[in-house]
Each structure stands twice: as structure tokens, then as C-alpha cells.
Amino acid sequence: MPKNLVIVESPAKAKTIEKFLGKDFQVESSYGHIRDLVQKDMGVDVANNFAPNYAISSDKKDVVKKLKKLSKDAEMVWLASDEDREGEAIAWHLYEALELAPTNTNRITFSEITKKAIENSIQNPRRINTDLVNAQQARRVLDRLVGFELSPVLWKKIKAGLSAGRVQSVAVRLIVEREIEIRNFKAKTFYKVVAEFSNTKGKSFKAELNKKFDNESEARDFLDQCSKHKFQIDSLETKPAKKSPAAPFTTSTLQQEAARKLYFSVGQTMSVAQKLYEAGLITYMRTDSTNLSDDALAAASAEISEHYGKDFAKTRRFSTKTKGAQEAHEAVRPTYFNRHKAGTGDQQQRLYDLIWKRSIASQMSDAELERTVFRINGPGEKLEFVARGEVIKFEGFLKVYLEGTDDEDSDEQSGMLPASSKGEALSYSEIIATQRFSKHAPRFTEASLVKKLEELGIGRPSTYAPTISTIIKRQYVEKSELEGSKRDYLRMALSVDGLKEEKLQETTGADKNKLIPTDIGSVVNGFLTEHFHNILDYNFTASVEQKFDQIAQGQAEWTAMIDDFYQDFHPHLKEVEENSERATGERVLGEDPKSGKQVIARIGRYGPMIQIGDVEDEDKPRFASLRKGQSIDTISFEEAMELFKLPRELGEYQGEKVSANIGRFGPYVKFKSTFASIKEADGDDPMTIELERAIEIIDAKIKADKEKFIKVFDEAKPEIQVLNGRYGPYLKSGRKNFKLPKEIEDPAALTREEAEKIIEESAKKPAKSRARKSTKTKSKK
DNA sequence: CAGTGAGCGAGCTTCCGCTTGACTT
Prior knowledge:
This protein is α+β, with helices and mostly antiparallel strands and 781 residues long. 35% of the residues lie in helices and 25% in strands. The chain contains 21 helices and 30 strands. The strands form eight sheets. A six-stranded antiparallel β-barrel has the order 9-10-13-12-11-14. The longest helix has 28 residues, at 130-157. The protein is globular. The protein binds one DNA strand of 25 nucleotides through helix 3, helix 5, helix 13, strand 21 and strand 24.
């Protein structure tokens, strides 16, 4: 039995460290936090100075049990969770939950996983830093108070099941406000002029005019002037320039770059990176630090020198500028720089490649360039064409890697300008004035939202991906494709043959993979920004972080800080709960010509809807759900009235009615008890679908259902059925499905008793969402 | 699941930050 028990947060880390420490040390993992505030009564006793009520998390009971046993047998327990606020709290929770004693407990930290760093930490143990733990408690309690008091106000004032929080609500606000900005944006038009010149040796190059014209006639006049103008090079200048590599990856920059270059979602990036980390190929992927360990710097330098030559190596240390960075880990880098390729499968290999290149490039020398600028006199005061050229003199880090850019149409000039001299006469082959339009700020992508949140210091590396999932799951925002519309623009080209004008067409407003607010998102954001402006303020997190820092420094009491906040927050919240109007985003669309009643669009109990008449009217109001792509903010009266044409009777099939409608899960056609989904993407629309096509879809559904069918136990009471699913046979009992145990070879031979037993067994097992009951079944065993 | 949109009321929903697998019909 080893004398020492070391506890870290991650099992992969545990494995690595165990190798460094030798046989006297057993290294185990806590799998992150082991305790959390209970859900009941917020888990905070507000009346009792905000006393937190912690409990072991249901999925951590086994871990804690095991660690407790091991700690009893060990001579010394080393709490080696991360060197930041959360890590310190994990150490403290372990200390409490494992019932450790001060005499045989040491707290150690290291921000890099190297033998030297770990051995050094063992030589320098310390106590748990109570101030830092209290800063974490303040953070935790504040988030709980805000989340668990604000959310119920939304249930009451808008719709059940909604949520609000310090991080997610700001994320939604960013997206909603950007969309409003885009909606209010009016594109300005202007004319951009680009010329293609040839010098006396017949070498050609492009140059852009230093002025944009406001309108067509100015641009035309200018081209007119050009036709009579003698062009020459007024000045030419060549300057050396440098480019430096970007810092190695943090979680946020990794997510951004993987989105730009590999088209990964942020969640995808994290799960692929997790696999690489577990395989020991990269360092920890949830980090806010750009720091590399000394060992890593040396290894990178050696690898670069060997592979590209000594000239290419340059050791650099990057400082982390991110607000609130805690730097408990290194930057994301390959574990071994001499592994140029690694990973299983295409995704892992591509992500590894990106990480390897970025890390290596960060330790390489600057690229040396030569930038050349030609200025060419134009026909008029201060009007000149400018040509830029760029030549790489020494590649440096560019040999390996260049950071991507979010700028959609950066016309980065590259290539050389032809050798020319000052005063040299130029002829033009074409001078083109093209009508252009100013652009609104881009919608957020997952990755650009993460970037923005990080800039604001909101959220942590471990929460960026889950935050995006949450706001999509709550249906505050969606990732959808916008079609865009056609727009005419004018192109005027001057050549030796004279001026040629063309009207061309382009698509504008098309967008994909962007985050777009839903009606619910907009209404929730409107409500929160109106009534809880301080929480939704972009600086709220930054200002509470300052207070957490003071607590961590021992300069403030955590309960006093929370009290200070709560004394304003809580009464105000109660006031809003009492007195504010329901927020439904209601908009009057017009009057129903038949009944003369008002037609309104609003958020209903089940989402965005249209309503004719009022609930207080004698005859009941009529309702209809909005369809995908429609919004209560933009739907027209005519579109709204169309919705009341559903459900539609299509006709009869085998003597039974066939109808089309839109249900909670989308458009469908119905025949007897069969509901068959129809796909608008395939050109089927419940508004226009014809009987013949509906029957096709229904027949296909009936056939598919038959193929799934294996057996039923009682024809008269077909409650329990055995069916074939995508992942093998399963039991269907009423509305619930149950997986068949692997032992069962022939599902068709299943008896009723066996089936009932399976259902009973499954009922005992914990459901995913309420795993609290799991301990009961497990303790029985 | 295949309608509903108010209100009644029990009991539920909900936060952020640390971690991995379990699971999907």
C-alpha cells in the first residue's frame, strides 16, 4: 500500500503524474467538483448569513467513497487540484467530504505537468487557502442566487422552463442586440475604383483609388477624366516589415481557429481535443493561459532547429491579457513536439495538426517582408491610385502556420510589384468602378461569441461550449441558414474601347452557421434588460470579479459581499415579480375581416403564436402556432391569416379522412391513427400538399412502422410491443421505450413475463436527469 | 406527441464551473 495519496481533478492527469512520482505515491482523480449546493431552497440559507448547504453530487458518490477509503489508509494525502479558485475549492470540499485531518493533509499546486514542477510542489506543500475558497463560495452562491431567483420570474412572466444567469443571459443579449443592429442597418452605397496598369516594359499590376465615390455620376465623371489622363508613377517606396506568430492556443483561440480552418463547432473541438488529451498527445484543453513550460520551450526550440534550421527558432513567452485569466494550466500544446502527426481518425489528426503547427510557429522567428507601395497620379486634386506589393524575404514562422482571420473579404495583397521607376509612364488596360455597399456587423458564430465572452471576462474555458448548448436548448437562439435576397449593382469599366456599363446582380443577406435570436430569446432579453439591467450589464461579471479578488486577498468578507448584492437584488426582484406586466412580445397585426376581432402575434404557453380575439370574449379565441422561420416581430397580417387555414382536409383514403397540419414536431399528414411527418425541405407543404402525395407519405410510414414491428403480447391490449430500432430491438410500453438486455438473443421469443421484468428493472435504474435515486439501488447490492 | 394558449394547484422547471462516460430507437 503506497504511503501517499495524491488527488488531482482529471484521471488522465493522474496517470501522467503517477509515472513521475514512483511507487510510494498513488494518484487518483476527483473528476472535478465532488460537492455542490443542493437544489432545495436554493441550497443557500439566506436568513442565516447565506450559509451554503452542500451535498456530494449524485454522480460522485462512488468516487468519494473510494477516495475516502484510500485516504484512511494513506499516511499523507496530497490535494493537488488546480491552482485557481475552483481548484482551491475542490481541495477544500475534498478535505471536508473525506474528513481529512490537518496533520496528514497537504495542499500542492503546479501549473504544468512536468517531473520537475511536480517534484518541486511536493517539496513545497502548503495549507488550503481559505480566502481563495471563500472567493469561490461567493462566486458559487452569487450564481445560484441570480440563477435560481431570476429564472422563476421568467416562468411567471413569460413561459415555464426558461432560465436566466450571469453568463447565459449576457450571451443571449449579445446575439439579440447584434440582430437588432442588423435589422436597423441601412446599407450605404459607394463606388470603389480599381485599375489595372502596365508599365513601359508591359508588366501589369493592380492599384486601388484612394477615394470612394458617393454616387454613380461622380464615379462616371471620374472615369471620364481618366480616359484623358496621363498616368505615371509619382512615388515608389519599399520598406522592410515583420510579422510575428500568434500565441499558442488557449481554449478560446483553439475553438476559434478550429472553426475557421476546420469548420468544427466549439463542442466538437472540445470533444476531439479531449480524446487527444486522454491519449496523452496534447496538454490540457481547458485553459486560459498562453504560457508554455520551460521544458516545452526547450523541446520546441530543439525540434525547430533540427527540422527547419537554427535561424527559424526563437523562444518567446506570451503574456496572457485576458480579463480574469487564472492560468492554472499551460497553453494547449502537443505533449511531444517531435510527433508531427498524431491522433486516431481524420478529426483528431486535423486538430492535432493545427495544435502542433500553432505551438511550433509560436516559437519560431519573425517573418521578414518587404512591402512596396506605388502611388500613381490620378486626374484630380489628391486623387491617386495606390498599389501595394509584399515580398517575403525570410519565411520564419510562416513556413509552418498563419492564423486565420474572421474578416470575410480582406483583400490581403501579396505578390510582387513589377520593377518600375519614379516618373515612369503607365498605360491602363482597364479602370473599373464598381458599386459597393457598406456592411453591417457580422452575426455571431459560436466561435466569435466565445471570443466576445472571453473579452468581456464572462464564462470560463470549461463553460464556453456548454453555454452555447444551453442558450440553444432553451430556444433563445438558433443556428439557422438565411437565404438572402438579390441586389442589383452597377459596374463601369473604362478600357481603350471606351466606357462600358453593366448592371449585375449579387446575393446579399445570406448567412449560415450564425446564431440568430428566436422570438423567445428576444422577449426574454427585452424583459431582463428592462428590469435587471445591472445583471445584464456587460461589466457585471468584471465588477463582481474584482470583489472576488478582494475576498481572495483576504480584504473582504464573502458573506458581506453577497449581502451587499442581495440587499439590492432581492427586493427589486420581488417588486418586479409583483408589479411588472407579463412579457409576451405582443404585437397587433390587424383585424379579422370575418369577426372584426383583433389579430395579435405573441409568445404563448407553447411558443410563438397568432391569436384572433380575446380570452375574455364570449366565443373562444382562435389560436395557431407560428411556423419555422416566422417571427412574431416580422410576420405580416396576411401570413398570419394563412396559418388559420390549418388543419386542412385533403380528402378520403380507404373511407377515412386524410388531413394535413403542423404539430409540435413539425408538419404532418394524418390518416386514422397514423401521423406521418412531411418535410418542407422536400417541397411538401401542409398548406399545399395534395391527397395523392399525402397517401404516398402515409403508406411509406405504415410500411416503415411494420418493418419495425416484431411482436405484441396481447392483440387486444397492444401496450407492450417489441420493435426494431435503429440500434437494435427495443421494448415499447405505452409511451416509454426500453432497451433490451444484450443477453436476449431472439427478441421474437421474448415472453410477457420477461418483458415486464425488463421494464420493472429499468424503472429502478436512475433516469439520466434525476440520478439522485441511483444511490438507493446501488446500496441494495 | 399530433392540441394547446386563462386559471385552478401539486410538483416540476432554473444557475456556473470542475470533470467523464452513458446513452441515443
